[in-house]
Structure formats: C-alpha cells, structure tokens
Amino acid sequence: MGRSLEKAIIPVAALAVSLVLFGAFVAAAGANPLDVYYDMYRGGFGTWFSFQNTLQRAAPLMLTALCALIPAHLGLIVIGGEGALLLGALGAVLAGRALGSAPPILAATFMMVAGAAVGGVWVALSGAMRTLRGVNETISSLLLNYIAIALFNHLVEGPLRDPVSLNKPSTFPIADAATIGNIPGMDVHWGLVFGLLACGLSYFLVMHSVHGFAARMIGGNVRAAALSGIDVARLTIVLCFVAGASAGIAGAVEVGAVQHTANATLIAGYGYTGVLVAFLARQHPLAAIPVSLLLGGINASGGLLQRTEHLPDATVKVLQGILFVVILASETLYGRYDWKILGRAAERKSAAVVPHAEPLAPAAGAEPTQVKGVA
Amino acid sequence: MVPIVLPPLPRSFLKALLTLLAVVAFSGCNKKESDASAAPATSGATEPASVKAKPFVVGFIYVGPKDDYGYNQAHAQGAAAIAKLPGVKVREEENVPETDAVQKTMESMISLDGAALLFPTSFGYFDPHILKVSDKFPNVPFLHCGGLYQEGKHPKNVGSYFGYIDEAQYVAGVVAGLTTKKNKLGFIAAKPIPQVLRNINSFTLGARSVNPRATTSVVFTGDWSLPVKEAEAANSLIDQGVDVLTMHVDSPKVIVETAEKRGIFVSGYHANQATLAPKGYLTGAEWNWAKIYTDYVTWVREGKSYPHLLRGGLKEGFVKLSPYGPAVSPEAKTKADEAKAKLLEGTFVIYKGPIKDNAGKIVIPDGTARPQTDIELEKMNYLVEGVVGKLPS
Fold first, then answer.
1. pTM value?
2. Residues of B in contact with A265 (CB under 8 A)
C-alpha cells in the first residue's frame, strides 16, 4: 500500500515541480506561464489532431527507450540506440527492396525482421564486449553510434545511393508493397502499435520471466549470478540483442512508414531521446509508454510555443532537462518516508488539532525548553 | 509515538514550491499588463488590419535556428520582410527536422494557426513530407526552397523556387583571386552534392579568371551543420597557407570567426556575416528571399496563378553580394563589378568550354556553353581545374 502510494506520489510531484520550475523559466523569458501551459496542452493533447501528433512522436521513443531500458536490468547503461536505429533502417531498406514482389504483409514483416536483426547485432556487440572482455558498455555503445553514423553516411552517399537523389543523397526507395500505412481511422502509422506491443512484451520478459529475474540477478551481483548457475555471457548478449532489435524496428518503421528510403534525415536523435525516456520511466517497460507520450506531447507542443508565444525552440529542451533532473533527484526520495504513516498521521492530526487545540499547545511549548536544557 | 522522519525536507520543499508558484503567478500578471501596453508598439503594422479583416497567415519552417548567420537566417530575413506587409501575419517554427515532425508542423500551422500559405524552407522537406501533406490540403500552396517541382508529377498546390547563387560565388571568387597573396584559397563544404560542387567550381573559375595561379583547397565536412569540424577544417586550411576562406555550410559563423581570429580574409555565404569579421570580411554570396517571398505572397493573396518553378540569379534579384569589406582593393572592386555587370546583363556564361576537371579530363568541350538553366549543370559531379581535392567515387 505504502509502496504503491509512493510510486504514484513521487513521479506526479516531480512532474508538478518540473512544471512550476519551467513556468518560472518561461516567465523569466518574458512569456505568461499560464498561456504556455495552455498552449502545451492545446499543442500536445487538447485536440484530436494534437493528440495524434503526440502519439506519432511517441511511437519511435517507446521502441528506442527499450534499447536502454532492457540492458539497465542487467546493470548496463547502453546508449547505442541511435546507431542501432540507423543500421536497422539500412537493413530494412535492403530487405524492402529485395522483396518488391512479395505480398505486402510479408514484405513489411520481413523488413521489420531485417531491421531488428541488424539493430540487435549492433547492440549485442556492446553487450559481448562487456561480458567477454570487460569493455565499458556505455563508452562502447556511444562510440559505436559514431561508427554507425559514419557507416550509414558512407553507404547512403556511396554504394547504396540512388543516382536520382542528387542534392539529398538517399538509398533507392523500398518497394510499394513494403511500405507501412496508418492505423485505420487514425493519422498515426503502425509504429505506435509496434511500440505498445514491444513495451508490453518487454514487461513480461523483464518483470515476469525467469530470464528477467536472472537479468536482475546479474545486475545486482554478477558473481552471485554466475555462482548460481546463470550463463551470464549468454543472457547479457541475448538481452542486448533484444534491446538493439527494438531500436532497429524503430528504424525500420521510420523507413517503412515515413521516409521510404534511408537518408541522413533519419539521424534525428530518437536513439538519444530514448535513453531519456528509459531513465524517466525508471527502467520500467510499462512506464515507458506514458513517459514517451509525455515527451512526445512536449515535442508536439514545442512548435505551437514557438509560433504563438515566440519562445525559442530550445524551450522544450529546457523543460526536458528540468524533467530529467527533477525526476532523477526525486529518486532519492524513494523509501525515505513511510507514506502510509504520513497518511495516518495526517488523519490523526486533522482529527486531533481541531477539537483538542488547547491541550496540545502546552506540549508543543514544552519541547523547546527541553532542547535548551540539553544544549 | 511513531517517529516520523518527514518534517524538515518536505516543509521547506513546500515553502519553496509555494514561493515559486507565487513568483510565477505574479510575473504572469505583470506580463499581461506589459503585454497590453507593448502591443501597439510591437505589432502595430498587423494588428489594425487583423481587426478589420482576417489576417493572411503565412507559415515559415526552418530546419535550424533562425539566427544562425546562415541558411535559416537568410530565410528568416525574407519572412521578416513579409511580416511588414499590411494584413499579413507570419508564423515561424525553427529547428524542425526533416522527419514526420515537419509533416505535423505543416498540418499544425494550417489547422491550429490557420495558415493559408506555407514556406517549408529546407531542401529535405520536399519528398516525402510536402508531397504527402499537400495532398490533404489542396487549397493551401506549399512553396518549397530547392527547385524540385516537376510539372505533371507533383501536386498542383506545390511550388518550388531556387536561386543560382553560384553567380554570386563567381564574383566573390574574383574578389578572392585578387586579394590572396599566397594564391591559396580554401573552401569548406558540407557534402559533395551538385549544388555545392557548382559553388566550389564557380568560385574557383571566378578566382582564376583574374588570377590563373590561384587554387582552391576543398574540405568536405560531411554534414550541413558541424561547427567543430568546420572550425578544425578552417584551422587546418589556414595552417596550410590558405589566406582566403569561403564555405557552403548551413551556418558559416564559426568559419568566419575562425578566419578573423587567425587574421586571414573570408568571403561569406547565405547571409551577411560582416559583423563577425569586421577586418577580414571581403564580400559574400547572399540570398535575397525577401523579393521572392513578397512576390509569392502577392500572387497568392490576389488569387493569381503563381509560377510553380521559379529560378533566378543576380539578374532576377534572387541573389546578391555583401557590400565590399575594407580589405578589398580598388582593383578587385573594379574587376568584381565588371564581372557582376556582365552577369546582370545576362550575356555572360560561367560554364563555357573548354573546361577541364582537376584530373585533366575535359568536362565541357570547346564551343559548348552551359548557361544557368542548363539541366546538365544540376548533375555536376566534378571539380574543375584549380580545385585541390577529390570527390568520393
């Protein structure tokens, strides 16, 4: 009871504090905070159009968040989502081109699988280096991002370039059969469904499966895990593969649903925003969904803030930064207070203070004298 | 008694929170008042018209910051010119990536701001984003910077415009060729794509038309906005003896500042960067979007048909040169003005054979002239003689 109460109170309070701090910030920048809140609501959630905008922006974040979130349960901080997304996109383009004549569902599925496979291998590299050679996974996955970007640019501008793409180097487009459309009745592509499914599946994998339990054992104490018979290396590499695969799918969705080719515009930072989502979600797969929606909504409303309040684009980045810092700081509050007691104490106080105001007063007055005596 | 560890932190926390709330609420009230008093001063031109009639809302979308001293600032200056027109209201959004984010921005400008005309200014917005969204809003013109429109292939409410800015680079090359003391020019470029190669080649041809011993060393950074790499490239070129730099990147700011700091000359691009290098700024190839935007807004507002493909150079007023800096010699000014006059007449062709590439191969044979509108120039894949550098094959 106290625990679940805590899990609800702390994030909500952190969100509220962030919004207040952000309000002070925009006030300092010369805008009316209440107008800004209203615009953010209107731009991110207020209308069906805005909400779909938010959903669309949240979709890739759910997938890239998992790339940081799943390895976190192994005790690993992986920030290689960006590279896995890009190379996943390249893999998807190659698959999407190869399968031009296949039935649409098959072609799209194969494209996703190809994206997942390439992205998975890329992050599994970091996992393997970590578990087999002791290379720090944060550094290696970050550096692999740069390698992935260089490789991506080289292939897009060189061997895989469509000669027709003169001033915007791109690969050949995928076959029409391989494109991914919108969810019926919505202006949001299927990537959202993939994101929700991936978060749901990861929840069972990480929180309710033997492998997830084993992963958390590794995260807690590698030696203990190894001594209890867990194949640390295998599980680490496999889970890193799963993590990279979800970022790879994000890349495949961007290709299938949005760009239809692979080009440098895919380097849009989804991978890095995913890391932010994972941390804000406190590495909980289901929490990644609302956090993605929140960040998606903030980004969706960023445009409106620029246009109506004339605030610079960096404004939403400031809010993201404030959120990140406040939520990380609020982590220290977990387990410090017994919220159940707080709740009960508050009840007792409100019951006590009103009718027995007088008898309590002398007791309160007596305390300071005692303290003085001790001093 | 149950000990409660709570009090110190949350109470102060609460206090801080309340204080903040008060500050926010207070400044909010203040803003309202100052808003009301400031309104006539800041938006006097558009407000009265909007009271009478619904304003004509024009949306501008930029891929980077609109104060980047470069590509986006040039467009924002054009937008600022539009904002001064009576009855026109400008809505701007900067740092919009070429992902589905720009689709949503365009839709949002139309459905939430009521935009009746859009200028998505980045090259990469066109395909697939503008093509996709323009289908949904057949009554809103989408006018794109890049010159990609093809009659019959693209929607009727889409248009594209672009300028032959290499003409201005040619004239800047003349100035550079007569200013350099070591005959070594430097060009920092983003990507080896036709548009960029054309600028490098025109700059070099301009320089060598007055100083055949001049060469241009090229460095490709790989992307449109990489300030650190651009600074490194600038320093490395200067270390190699280059004494005039120019560039084709989104924001020339870092390169111009580096050149000034190192005491060499620099020729600008996209917008005027003279304030960043008061000593070494020679001239620069600038866009003049204000003219194109004013024309388009007038055509669309009056319900006239507008050109779907609009291109032009110095003669048409699409591009211009920054005023000459203090380091430009009278001789260089005369020669540059001559070249400019010939381009303004429209009689001079920059790409006139024989032109060799820097490996000695003839790319434009003797007797062949390729004027600006020649479609072959859009596929440029070589560096002319006098350029030091290599294209990735």
1. 0.81
2. 97-99, 124
